[in-house]
């Protein structure tokens, strides 16, 4: 005999831990649709840089961002990364930018190739 007691729904503790706030637009979203960004020390440049962490593996404090140029712009303008990551100097976000642009191209571009050299002649 299997007793199925479903009178107590578990809706009370629904995914409370997966929601994160985007540092760009400040809206909450599931962390699976946000990009994690951490601050890492760059030896060559001798400064902290914002580093994309799409696999959410890097240790330390993370900032969450929609991987879109719009949210990145907002975050950069407000220096939200530095604030979220608790660093004093503004962070170099070029790596995050590159990652976001790559994501965008993967979504939008599809199979399209940039054709700088016109292969179609005539
Ligand atoms: Zn956002």
From TrEMBL:
Domain YlxR: from-to ranges: 20-92
InterPro entries according to UniProt: YlxR (IPR037465), YlxR-like_sf (IPR035931), YlxR_dom (IPR007393)
One Pfam family from the record: YlxR
Name the record gives this protein: YlxR domain-containing protein
Lineage summary: Bacteria, Bacillati, Actinomycetota, Actinomycetes, Micrococcales
């Amino acid at each position: 005999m299997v007793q199925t007691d479903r009178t107590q729904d578990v809706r009370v503790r629904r995914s409370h831990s997966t929601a994160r706030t985007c540092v760009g637009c400040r809206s909450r979203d599931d962390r699976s649709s946000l990009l994690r960004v951490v601050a890492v020390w760059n030896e060559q440049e001798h400064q902290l840089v914002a580093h994309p962490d799409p696999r959410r593996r890097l240790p330390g404090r993370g900032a969450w961002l929609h991987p879109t140029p719009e949210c990145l712009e907002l975050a950069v303008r407000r220096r939200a990364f530095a604030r979220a990551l608790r660093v004093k100097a503004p962070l170099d976000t070029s790596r995050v930018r590159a990652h976001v642009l790559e994501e965008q191209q993967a979504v939008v571009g599809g199979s399209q190739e940039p054709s700088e050299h016109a292969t179609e002649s005539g």
